[in-house]
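Recall the central idea of this unit: under ordinary conditions, the amino acid sequence of a chain determines the structure it adopts. In this exercise we apply that idea directly, starting from the sequence alone.
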Amino acid sequence: MKWGVMILAAGEASRMGKAKMLLPFKKTTILAHLIEEIISVEPNIVQLVTGYYHDLIQAQINTDKVNIIQNQDYKLGMSSSITVGLTAMLKACPGLDVLVIVVSDQPFLNRAILLNLLNKQIQTTKGIIASTYNGVMGTPVLLSSAYFTHLCNLTGDKGARVILQQFPADIATIDFELGALDIDTKEDYEQLCKKLNEEDVD
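Accordingly, the structure predicted from this sequence is:
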């Protein structure tokens, strides 16, 4: 099975006012931590989609195991980043069977979550495996190649959740309780730092 991971990091992070994916996390940054975890499970391709903070992000990526592409149309929303990223991935890695979409502001994503997604897909043969937290389904989300056209047809600031709503019968889920903690505001980041100080979260 050929599989890839797409990291979405194109937004302006307007509520944060700075590049939230480059904020300190543990001994590195949130984005560098995500990349380290993703690379450790050896996907066939890792595609990082940048946008507003392209130059800042590119300057901090020091591995050749990540392909970087800038979404010039990032203001059109998440759908445009997914289209740009997936097009680049299929060109670089034809015959991709499975795509895992990751957002760059879920600091507690780790290799175990990624492996759980893959194993659940193998066990259930479902075309979509979503993470669940706070009673909702979200990222990271795995989609089989049967949904690649649907992904490329998304418009506006919409992500894979639209497809989840359209094909509920082809979905299985994994638990990712800490996925609920994403970093949109300074308060979110303060909560993250507090959580790291209170307990050692792997």
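The chain has a mean pLDDT of 92.
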